[in-house]
Amino acid sequence: MDKAENTVDKKVYIETYGCQMNVNDSEVMLSILQDAGYTRTEDIGVADVILVNTCSIRDNAEQRIWGRLEQFRLQKKKRDNVIIGITGCMAERLKDRLLDSHIVDLVAGPDSYRTLPQMLEAASSGHPQINVLLSHEETYADITPVRMDRNGVSAFISIMRGCNNVCSYCVVPYTRGAERSRDPKTILKEAENLVAMGYKEVCLLGQNVDSYYWKDPETADNDMNFARLLESVAQISPDLRVRFSTSHPKDISDEVIYTMAMYDNICRHIHLPVQSGSNVMLEKMRRKYTREWYLERVKKIRSVIPDCGITTDVIAGFCGETEQDHRDTLSLMEAVGFDSAFMFQYSERPGTLAARKFADDIPDEVKTRRLNEIIALQNRLSLASNEKEIGRTHRVLVEGVSKRSPDELFGRASNNKVCVFPAEGHVTGEYVDVTVTSCTSATLISRLKR
Ligand code: SAH
Ligand code: SF4
Ligand code: F3S
Questions:
Q1: Per-residue pLDDT tens for 350-388?
Q2: Per residue in 311-359, pLDDT tens?
Q3: Alpha carbon of 59 to ligand 3 centroid (Å)
Q4: Is the pTM of the predicted complex or chain greater than 0.85?
Q5: Distance, CA of 188 to CA of 184 (rounded, Å)
Q6: Which of 21, 57, 209 to mutate to test the pocket of ligand 1 (most atoms within 8 A of CB)?
Q7: Are 302 and 335 within 8 A, CB to CB?
Q8: Does ligand 1 have an atom closer than 6 angstroms to the CB of 315?
Q9: 139 by DSSP, 3-state: which?
Q10: From CA 364, how far away is CA 191, in angstroms rounded?
């Protein structure tokens, strides 16, 4: 059937929670639905279909979504024929239990999005739909995501899906399934198309990008690891910046670090989640590296790329964490001097190894206190790191108008730090050289370089 005949003339509203990969998945869903004749709306009040692309990483992420579902129930009261669908990680984790709420008409796991048009059609004739099959092959390689960002400057490209690591606290391997890498030819084509559309930056996404591996069906010489992929994307255009996330400390290779150093357009930033500074905790978390290994990787990165931004994720109050374990986390953070961090309290996720093997035994008030200490330390480290930037010059890719003032722009330096500076005729999508004049713990206040 050609597209014109296939037009369903319905409006879809998509709300996205969770990580960058979920954001990119929403773009994949929109692409599939547009091909089936749907158009996107940002007005929930006129939507025929409401899709919520969900996250299960911590309990509070799920609680927020349950809260939102209450609001969708109101939409359904007003307009009986509106279809409500849950997609993404919560759909995969809770499966048919989501249908029991009677708010939801459709439950679609992360590997089922190609079937959305058929599922929506069936759901609209009153039959609740569920597809939570996980796949070993699906990478949506041939689907061109419909970009939902507004700036037209920076886009995500998923290079792999799933995760094989089974860190004991983490729900992702259960909600996203086994790791699989995407055909590099389709990744490069997507990046080239983005350049042709005027995009200036791509971020290559995977739960563990360092384990990206593509076996060429014809010759092993053409096998592609992450370093080679990164290099191939960087070679598309010197005007295209390349970022990537997430690197796993156990897997980040010297080859990746040297490749970054070789190309000016590979951004000098590595997000390297440490989770804990205690070897006892790292072992229980099944992270498969030690504090010493982590510190060695940081040393290596800094010896090859001295100006590399290093950011991290930290979990406070994992099972059995002692005050000494907690102090080990603080001392590691101090030893590295992270440029910024995402910091969380441990949240037990049903079905994970930790939930089955270890008691979630750190009282909430202790978790909160430790998290607050971690946050206070990171604020100090972020400020110290930013203060070192004063007087330095950075090439910034302009991403938009600053929230502070319509006369100011913002963009990120190669090391991922956000710079704010006077527009003076510059526009979104340009590269601009700025000099840092002052800072907060979150922003580099800058002026145009003269
Ligand atoms: N693949 C990435 C992380 C994905 S999840 C990696 O391995 O680094 C993003 C972050 O959420 C994790 O780095 C971790 O810090 C946090 N996280 C994951 N599960 C969690 C849990 N059960 N409780 C609290 N934080 C968690
Ligand atoms: Fe979760 Fe670990 Fe996989 Fe990251 S590497 S997604 S933390 S299991
Ligand atoms: Fe959340 Fe799933 Fe991403 S659990 S963090 S949306 S992979």
A1: 999 999 999 999 999 999 999 999 999 999 999 999 999
A2: 999 999 999 999 999 999 999 999 999 999 999 999 999 999 999 999 9
A3: 12
A4: yes
A5: 6
A6: 57
A7: no
A8: yes
A9: coil
A10: 45
